[in-house]
Design a protein that fits this description.
Length: 284
């Protein structure tokens, strides 16, 4: 019997090395998240706060946890017409296990739906040699357009005004945080609208990008934040599909009807700025 590989390794990649993690440690009785005993956190810390602790290694303030919690609420669902919900329902209809359906829904995320927050955060972090927000927006728009890239974080195919986004942006400013992320995402919407010849709204991706930037998160966490939020909505669609629909049905999105509690006018807070900007993007 011979070894899988005989002879010397050609490079250091074949050598096992000790590695480190600063996230979690365990002992005989406890789990420690960034140094905090998890049993001590139960009933005291919020889920949003614990996620921030995991992601940043810092103890979040109450305002930090409240803002991140608002982010998780803002993107929690967008109905059965969102591509990820359609995928999750379709896979559920085949009789697949719930976790398979959830994974399928998440794999439907892409630059036009569910995976635009990270790119928007990275765009907000670009630093053209200007200080005025409108000049910044024009410069970034020109650069992205020259490179043939879409501007993430603005426009919506269903909503002329995205009130989720407006509410979240207002919360950032109400907490007294740096105005730069909010001003920049609004400047991008203005720049795109100027090019399109019509008003363009900041969408939920842009609002999340501004809020998460204000929280000091690494842009790599942007799309994860959306996924954490939307997984709850997808789980509701998966369970409803399994309980209310026949297996292997033909799913025609435009035939979906709503029969839940009355919707009414239950908005909170002041009016959002008006916009008229149906776009091809999903941004649900």
């Amino acid at each position: 019997m011979r070894a899988i590989h005989e002879g010397r390794a050609a490079g250091r990649g074949a050598e096992a090395e000790a590695w480190r993690s600063a996230i979690t440690a365990t002992d005989e009785e406890r789990i420690y998240i960034r140094g905090l005993a998890l049993d001590a956190a139960i009933g005291r810390e919020t889920y949003a706060g614990m996620v921030l602790r995991l992601w940043t290694g810092r103890e979040p303030t109450n305002d930090d946890a409240a803002l991140f919690d608002a982010c998780l609420v803002a993107a929690i669902d967008h109905g059965p017409l969102a591509p990820s919900a359609l995928v999750a329902r379709t896979v559920t209809s085949t009789g697949a296990p719930p976790m398979t359906s959830l994974a399928a829904g998440i794999t439907a995320f892409g630059p036009l739906h569910g995976a635009a927050v990270t790119s928007a955060m990275r765009l907000l972090a670009t630093l053209p040699d200007v200080t005025d927000a409108d000049e910044w927006g024009s410069a970034v728009f020109a650069g992205e357009r020259a490179a043939g890239r879409r501007i993430p974080g603005v426009g919506h195919r269903w909503h002329s005004v995205d009130r989720r986004a407006e509410r979240l942006l207002r919360m950032v400013t109400d907490q007294g945080r740096s105005a730069a992320p909010v001003e920049r995402v609004r400047a991008l919407a203005v720049a795109v609208g100027r090019h399109a010849g019509r008003s363009v709204a900041v969408n939920i991706d842009g609002a999340l990008a501004a809020a998460l930037t204000a929280l000091g998160l690494d842009p790599a966490y942007g799309d994860f934040a959306f996924a954490l939020s939307r997984a709850a909505g997808l789980s509701a669609h998966i369970v409803e599909e399994s309980l209310r629909q026949r297996p292997m049905r033909l799913i025609l999105p435009t035939l979906a009807t709503y029969d839940g509690p009355p919707t009414g006018q239950q908005g909170i807070g002041g009016d959002a700025s008006s916009a008229d900007q149906p776009t091809p993007e999903e941004h649900a």
